[in-house]
Known about the structure:
The protein has 12 helices and 10 strands. By secondary structure, it is α+β, with helices and mostly antiparallel strands. The chain has 2 domains: 2-87; 107-342, BirA Bifunctional Protein, domain 2. The mean pLDDT is 91. The structure holds 3,4-dihydroxyphenylalanine.
Amino acid sequence: MRSEIEAYLKEIQATKIEEFKNKAEEVELFRIKYLGKKGAISALFDQFKTLPGDQKKETGALLNQLKNAAIAKLEEFKSFVEENATAKADADLSLPADFSSVGGRHVLSVVMNEIIDIFGRLGFTVAESGEIEDDWHLFSALNFPPDHPARDMQDTFFVEKDNGSSDVALRTHTSSVQVRVMEHSTPPIRIIAPGRVFRNEAISARAHCIFHQVEALYVDKKVTFADLKQTLLYFAKEMFGEETQIRLRPSYFPFTEPSAEMDISCNICHGEGCNICKGTGWLEILGCGMVDPNVLDACGIDSKKFSGFALGMGVERMAMLKYQIRDLRLYFENDIRFLQQFSNIV
Length: 346
Ligand code: DAH
């Protein structure tokens, strides 16, 4: 029994509170282990009772020594824990907080939100639909002729069905959202559709197979080209500054008639000619036009009663022009040095 007591004594003396991880909890465990009702010392006292009388004196003294050592150690531990707790409570609460850095928005989100905001002020609300679309919503309802190049494998990622046929594709433009909205609503319709689009392009500084577009659509009675022009001018000035001018060039899109492309005055050289505007003083910004009556009819809207305008723009291009970003690949590389430049823009 003596050797057992001595071993415990050594063990207790060697126990150091600094080694406890969860201090208060481990001090209590220490108490239970040695001084608890069913603890080691209590068990030794039970054993002590059975000792022959001649051994009791010496062993009793040693056992008391062990008990006192355990109590002293426990007191020492307890005051350590208490002191630490008060030290914590005494912490200087007026110290400035430790500012952990918060993330910033991706520049594409910033620009997309800004576009949504500007159109929101004109009463446009956000509409969304899926990134996987069928031929009808991507092309047919939008008046694409059957042999239009956009339907070609070279431009479009088709999703093959189990039976090998493929009239389902990753959407090549957000104009498909127009169709989905018109099919399910009656004018007046005023929506803006931001989203991701996919095209089968080799990745370079000027092209990518994934990018983002924002589409806008307004359908009502007596919507005219003048409404479109005014909307475009408002958008351009809000987005690129009050001094911005716009110009419209005739163009062709299957889903609009007449169609146009809009340029803005170059906000980098202010019309003098630079390498961004290729010396012209103008920057190409978006496609637009009056919704082709065929499209309205295909979507169940009476083209004799209603008219509308639509426009579509690339978000990457907007961001490039606004922040003079030269390479499309930067948007997707997640290089923190690039992203951080925009982290303070909300
Ligand atoms: N969908 C066209 C594209 O991806 C962009 C576009 C042009 C949308 C003219 C329109 C529009 O709504 O009227 O290139």
